[in-house]
Specification:
The chain is mostly beta strands. 15% of the residues lie in helices and 47% in strands. A hairpin with a 3-residue loop joins strand 9 and strand 10. The radius of gyration is 22 Å and the shape is globular.
Length: 193
């Protein structure tokens, strides 16, 4: 019995030490959380240039699947229902495509509504600059016909360690179905500092 009591004490000491080291694992960061005022805000512009067969040098995204027959068989507008697009898009702090990049948006979207344009999107903003290092991970429904729509910021790494918040998207510009620019107003409500 005495051996069991000693091993229980040793186990308790190990658990306490591991819990203490958990704070060291993320640099003793402290959570700042407020649902009334964001702890960090930024506005960036996401530029998507879809590959059209002739723009290999400039394209930043490509269809990985074709739309299903359902997208064109019943609706004359051809909604691209079922098409999956994979991207590695430029993200800038200013509207101009030629502006210096602040991040890359890497992920995918797929068209998920049969009778009108709508997509579901998931991607990481990959920052590698003097201003920011790390990633922000975003996902949600992109209801394209709404002027603005919100998607979730579900996590991050580096300067955005475990961040949570909301990104408000607004289609800022588009040229046919091969180029569009989104303005993303990102508000983080959980930040570790």
């Amino acid at each position: 019995m005495q051996g069991l009591a000693t091993s229980s004490k040793l186990g308790l000491i190990v658990v306490i030490l591991l819990l203490g080291l958990a704070g060291v694992a993320h640099g003793r960061r402290r959570l700042i959380s407020s649902y009334e005022e964001p702890c960090q805000k930024m506005t960036v512009f996401y530029h998507d240039i879809l590959y059209n067969g002739n723009n290999t040098a400039n394209a930043t995204s490509a269809a990985a699947t074709q739309p299903t027959a359902l997208s064109t068989s019943h609706w004359s507008n051809g909604t691209f229902f079922g098409m999956l697009v994979v991207f590695d898009d430029l993200v800038t702090a200013e509207e101009a495509l030629e502006s210096p990049p602040v991040a890359r948006a890497q992920g995918f979207y797929f068209y998920d509504k049969k009778d009108s344009y709508n997509a579901w999107i998931a991607f990481s903003l990959v920052f590698n600059s003097t201003a920011y290092q790390g990633t922000l991970n975003l996902m949600g429904a992109d209801l394209m016909y709404q002027d603005t729509r919100d998607i979730s910021v579900v996590g991050g790494t580096g300067d955005f360690f475990m961040a949570r918040g909301v990104a408000t998207l607004r289609t800022d510009s588009f040229e046919g179905s091969y180029y569009f620019r989104l303005q993303m107003d990102i508000k983080l409500y959980e930040c570790y500092v």
